[in-house]
């Protein structure tokens, strides 16, 4: 078992660009469906046609796809860290991430993914030496867990809550007008009530996505992009066509379905297996675009956001919780979908400028630096 503590190594700008784009999608979905109105409340009826159009666009193009791509890149990152810094440091790195996740979940936002990534990351350590075909096979099996449980054992996912309408009013009142203490208590109770759902649903799905990322890194595509243009072209066209096409069909079918039925549930099972190809299609399209001299300089503007993804993700929570929660500006329930997208885009652009400025003077983002110091167990130089 390796115990080396190598330096950070050269950055792979293509990975940073894809991570930056995925971060934008994650931000928009979190803002629209978690901060604007909590994602565990019943669906909110949007009064304007524009809102329906924007919401449908997000469902087809962004929802689940951005987070899936982000999870795949986490698996890529695990493989890179193992190669450069050794296997021994990886558990400590994941423990630090878990600590961040627990603090983030209870202290700021229960939509946190860091805890899920840490729990999934521990399990992923067992597969880092596996062959790509084996990793993909395990990933497909894991991605089937949630849909099959939803189809055959829905009671496993049930959480004890009041009637939906009453609970929705309670959530909006607490988060939209409550103090920090009131929100903290409400959030802690809800997080503990939904912990089994995290283990049954979120962890297997995230682990499956991570293993896809490990397999991609082992395939050598990211290290030799020009040699795999044809495969990337097919992945981009096929993945996006299959994923977006079925998501569009899913949106139409959901609108036409009056009551739940076995077919509706089976439809969700199929949909869950089209998300990964669509997310990979986005990544492949970006890799191909980065090979063009005219497009590359523009796309590289996303790289600083990807390099500081950890810091930017946590900063987004701080900003959005302040804007939407009662102890801040209390905007929860007051913005439409399109207004949420606009707000998220403005925040993302600001983060882009801040990230670029920061990385002109420092090697890492502030939270990346703390994570690195705790992982290596010693002070890390941060200034360039």
UniProtKB/TrEMBL annotation:
**Keywords, A to Z?**
Membrane, Transmembrane, Transmembrane helix
User: Which residue spans traverse the membrane?
Assistant: 21-37, 57-78, 90-107, 135-157, 231-249, 269-290, 310-328, 340-359
Q: Entry's Pfam families?
A: DUF418
Presence of keyword Membrane: yes
Every copy of the DUF418 domain together lies at 217-377
Task: Identify the domain of life.
Answer: Bacteria
Protein name, entry field:
DUF418 domain-containing protein
């Amino acid at each position: 078992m390796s115990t080396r503590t190598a330096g950070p190594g050269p950055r792979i700008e293509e990975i940073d660009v894809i991570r930056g784009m995925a971060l934008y999608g994650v931000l928009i979905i979190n803002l629209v469906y978690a901060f604007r109105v909590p994602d565990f409340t019943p669906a909110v009826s949007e009064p304007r046609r524009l809102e329906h159009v924007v919401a449908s666009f997000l469902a087809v193009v962004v929802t689940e796809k951005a987070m899936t791509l982000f999870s795949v890149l986490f698996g890529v990152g695990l493989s890179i860290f193992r190669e450069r810094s050794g296997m021994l440091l990886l558990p400590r790195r994941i423990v630090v991430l878990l600590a961040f996740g627990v603090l983030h979940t209870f202290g700021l936002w229960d939509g946190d993914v860091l805890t899920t990534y840490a729990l999934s990351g521990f399990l992923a350590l067992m597969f880092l030496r596996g062959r790509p075909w084996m990793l993909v096979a395990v990933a497909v099996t894991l991605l089937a867990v949630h849909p099959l449980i939803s189809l055959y054992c829905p009671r496993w996912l049930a959480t004890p809550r009041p009637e939906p309408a009453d609970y929705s009013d309670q959530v909006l009142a607490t988060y939209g007008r409550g103090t920090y203490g009131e929100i903290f208590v409400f959030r802690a109770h809800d997080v503990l009530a939904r912990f089994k759902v995290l283990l049954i649903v979120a962890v297997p799905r995230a682990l499956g996505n991570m293993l896809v990322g490990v397999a991609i890194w082992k395939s050598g595509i990211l290290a030799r992009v020009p040699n795999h243009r044809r495969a990337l072209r097919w992945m981009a066209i096929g993945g996006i066509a299959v994923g977006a096409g079925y998501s569009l069909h899913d949106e139409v079918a959901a609108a036409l379905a009056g009551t739940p039925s076995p077919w509706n549930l089976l439809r969700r099972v199929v949909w869950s297996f089209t998300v990964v190809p669509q997310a990979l299609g986005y990544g492949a399209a970006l890799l191909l675009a980065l090979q063009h001299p005219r497009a590359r300089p523009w796309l590289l503007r996303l790289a600083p956001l990807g390099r500081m993804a950890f810091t930017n993700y946590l900063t987004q929570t701080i900003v959005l919780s302040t804007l939407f929660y009662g102890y801040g500006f209390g905007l929860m329930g007051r913005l439409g979908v399109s207004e949420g997208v606009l707000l998220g885009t403005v925040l993302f652009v600001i983060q882009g400028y801040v990230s670029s400025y920061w990385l002109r003077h420092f090697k890492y983002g502030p939270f990346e630096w703390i994570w690195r110091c705790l992982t290596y167990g010693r002070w890390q130089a941060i200034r360039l």
